[in-house]
Automatic annotation (TrEMBL), chain A:
Protein name: Carbon-monoxide dehydrogenase medium subunit
EC number: 1.2.7.4
Organism from which the protein derives: Aminobacter carboxidus
Enzyme class at the top of the EC tree: oxidoreductase
Keyword flag Flavoprotein: yes
PANTHER family with a match to the protein in the record: XANTHINE DEHYDROGENASE FAD-BINDING SUBUNIT XDHB-RELATED (PTHR42659:SF9), XANTHINE DEHYDROGENASE SUBUNIT C-RELATED (PTHR42659)
Gene3D superfamilies given in the database record: 3.30.465.10, CO dehydrogenase flavoprotein, C-terminal domain (3.30.390.50), Uridine Diphospho-n-acetylenolpyruvylglucosamine Reductase, domain 2 (3.30.43.10)
FAD-binding PCMH-type domain residues: 1-176
Pfam families cross-referenced by the UniProt entry: CO_deh_flav_C, FAD_binding_5
Keywords linked to the UniProt accession: FAD, Flavoprotein, Oxidoreductase
Cited InterPro entries: CO_DH_flav_C, CO_DH_flav_C_dom_sf, Diverse_Substr_Oxidored, FAD-bd_PCMH, FAD-bd_PCMH-like_sf, FAD-bd_PCMH_sub1, FAD-bd_PCMH_sub2, Mopterin_DH_FAD-bd
Gene Ontology molecular function, alphabetical: anaerobic carbon-monoxide dehydrogenase activity; FAD binding
From TrEMBL, chain B:
Protein name: (2Fe-2S)-binding protein
Organism of derivation: Aminobacter carboxidus
Alphabetized UniProt keyword annotations: 2Fe-2S, Iron, Iron-sulfur, Metal-binding, Oxidoreductase
A GO molecular-function annotation: metal ion binding
Residue span(s) of domain 2Fe-2S ferredoxin-type: 3-79
InterPro entries to which the protein is assigned, alphabetical: 2Fe-2S-bd, 2Fe-2S-bd_dom_sf, 2Fe-2S_ferredoxin-like_sf, 2Fe-2S_ferredoxin-type, 2Fe2S_fd_BS, Beta-grasp_dom_sf, Diverse_Oxidoreductases
Length: 287, 160
């Protein structure tokens, strides 16, 4: 493996200082399942890694009915995947977590790490955006909270400034009138990156769709919302014709590229198929 | 920079002196001499290097040796309950011919051990999900499934 220096931070302040002081080739080291691969395959030039896993207070998972689900930066995908609360209240998150890498990878990889890597195909991002999640950011001068939908600026790029560190994510509470789904489409079921990922989170009231968020993965420079498709669905009973028209609209709203995993045309078609299917699956919560 | 890492490997306290950028896999194989854990892809795709750290299976290639400080690591060398006594999974793998070239076997055995510890009577779907991070390049999955199911029955009989 290409050589790098390993630093262990005991506090957020120390980690932040190391990030600013050690120069551009310094990276936070959390689960490491992406970073170590990038170092080994020489995809990223790394001189220093700053291990944050000893920092106290970043491993907690909490849930309450007003604030929702909050988990710290060190919480692994596997821990959340196996939580009864996630299985019951957030089937969309559960589907995304259980489809990421392998069990071995999920025992190391963190959700915050997957989010901060900012890959357009990251499985955890679409359902978190559809749920309206917020991300907590530490800096040495202040803390800020940013809607996850505004966190990404491009593939691998976020609003994080040098020395800023994500400490956790909050997902709003899941009410009894909520339906959620995440569908991942790949060439195989396990150990696969998404060709297309579609997340739908909706709420129903008196048989009508109160609110809906659609988030599309791997069909743009960042995970995208489909605002026009969403507008077509709000206030309707989500009948088959309306859903079909909205799914067609979502196909227009995405901006896929062709690459080794699929062509742009195929991805666009799959957005149409999966958007309809995800809405149907989200509605199963009310069946 | 070299660091001394104190940890427990297969029940024994050990210390390793390692470069801080060394993977746990390389440290186990080259510094500790436990070559049962295999290096397949070295990027977390194949599962050949699966070891159990503090009770959870991980890819030893995707963990730094320095991160194992104070932890408990179980490798294939520790699976045998005693000298000349095989773990029921090892015994079943031999009887069912669930090992062809053998390179994936240590990782699959560690993963199967964890699977049966958590879920003594797994369905085919449970086994498929449990082993989805372990690739057998010889594609001998049918016999691997048969062996795991046979070991599960034997282990349950031994408990009752």
């Amino acid at each position: 493996m290409r050589r790098f220096e390993y630093h262990r931070a005991d506090t957020l302040e120390q980690a932040s200082r190391l990030l600013t002081d050690l120069g551009d080739d310094t990276f936070l080291f959390n689960g490491g399942t992406d970073l170590l691969v990038e170092i080994r395959e020489r995809l990223r030039r790394v001189r220093h890694v700053v291990d944050i896993k000893q920092i106290p207070g970043l491993s907690d998972i909490t849930y309450d009915e007003t604030r929702g689900l909050t988990f710290g930066a060190l919480v692994t995908v596997g821990r959340l995947e196996n939580l009864a609360l996630v299985r019951q209240r957030y089937p969309n998150l559960r589907a995304a977590f259980a489809s990421l890498g392998s069990i071995q990878v999920r025992n190391r990889a963190t959700v915050v790490g997957n989010v901060c890597r900012a890959s357009p195909s990251a499985d955890t991002i679409p359902p978190l955006i559809a749920d309206g999640a917020f991300i907590h950011i530490y800096s040495r001068t202040n803390m800020r909270v940013v809607p996850l939908a505004e966190f990404f600026t491009g593939p691998g790029k976020t609003v994080l400034a040098k020395g800023e560190i994500v400490t956790g994510i909050t997902v709003p509470p899941a009410g009894d009138n909520a339906g959620k789904a995440y569908l991942k489409h790949g060439r195989r079921k396990a150990m696969e990156l998404s060709t297309v990922g579609v997340a739908v989170s909706l709420t129903m009231e008196d048989g009508l769709c109160n609110d809906i968020r659609i988030a599309l993965g791997a069909v743009g420079a960042t995970v995208l919302r489909a605002p026009e498709a969403e507008a077509m669905l709000r206030g309707t009973a989500l009948d088959a014709v309306t859903v079909k028209n909205a799914a067609d609209k979502a196909m227009e709203e995405c901006t896929p590229i062709s690459n080794v995993r699929a062509s742009a045309d195929y991805r666009r078609d799959m957005v149409g198929v999966l958007t309809g299917r995800a809405i149907k699956q989200a509605l199963e919560a009310f069946a | 920079m070299k660091r001394i890492v104190e940890l427990i490997i297969n029940g024994e306290p050990r210390d390793m002196t390692v470069d801080s950028c060394r993977s746990l896999l390389d440290a186990l194989r080259d510094d500790v001499g436990l070559t049962g854990t295999k290096k397949g892809c070295d990027v977390g795709d194949c599962g050949a290097c699966t070891v159990i750290v503090d009770g959870e299976p991980v890819n030893a290639c995707l963990m730094l040796a320095v991160e194992a400080e104070g932890r408990t690591v179980e490798t294939i060398e520790g699976l045998q309950p005693g000298v000349d006594v095989l773990h029921p999974l090892q015994d079943a793998f031999m009887r069912y011919g669930a090992s062809q070239c053998g390179f994936c076997t240590p990782g699959i055995l560690m993963m199967a051990k964890k699977l049966l510890d958590d879920n003594p009577r797994p369905t085919d779907e449970d086994i498929r999900f449990g082993l989805s991070g372990n690739i057998c390049r010889c594609t001998g999955y049918t016999k691997i499934f048969d062996a795991i199911k046979a070991a599960a029955i034997e282990m349950e009989a031994a408990r009752s």
